[in-house]
Amino acid sequence: MAQILVVDDEPAIRQLLTDVLELDGHEVRSAADGLAAVDAFEALRPDCVVLDLMMPGLDGYGVLRNIRGHDGDPVPVIMLTALADRDSAARAWTDGADYYLAKPFAADEVLHLIRGLFRERMQAVEA
């Protein structure tokens, strides 16, 4: 399956997402803050990133801008945040997020979004 980078400063959320995604057959790496996320992204070049917005050091917007600054096919990014307001969502979309999901969320929601992202990519490749 896919290699997914999970970035969140809350250990319980990182573990929940890791468990759910690994049970679905994905290889999961995680990072606890934005700076570690940038390093992990550059080292791994994952197929998808699940990214928290509010983190110490470099926030999710900064990580997203870094990801979008790389050449090649854009990696899908799902933003997770407790900031479910219009301004935060608009900024995430402007910076290049593929999805914006408010906390609290069900782990199945993230799994459904990731499956949809990969289904869309496979259809685009086949077309």
UniProtKB/TrEMBL annotation:
SMART domains named among the record's database cross-references: REC
**Keyword annotations of the record:** Phosphoprotein
Q: Does the keyword DNA-binding apply?
A: no
Residues with PTM 4-aspartylphosphate: 52
Pinpoint the Response regulatory domain residues.
Answer: 3-118
Has UniProt tagged this entry with the keyword Phosphoprotein?
Answer: yes
Q: Which InterPro entries match?
A: Bact_response_regulator (IPR050595), CheY-like_superfamily (IPR011006), Sig_transdc_resp-reg_receiver (IPR001789)
Q: Which domain of life is it from?
A: Bacteria
Q: Which PANTHER family match?
A: RESPONSE REGULATORY DOMAIN-CONTAINING PROTEIN, STRESS RESPONSE REGULATOR PROTEIN 1
Protein name listed in UniProt: Response regulator
Tell me the organism. Planosporangium thailandense
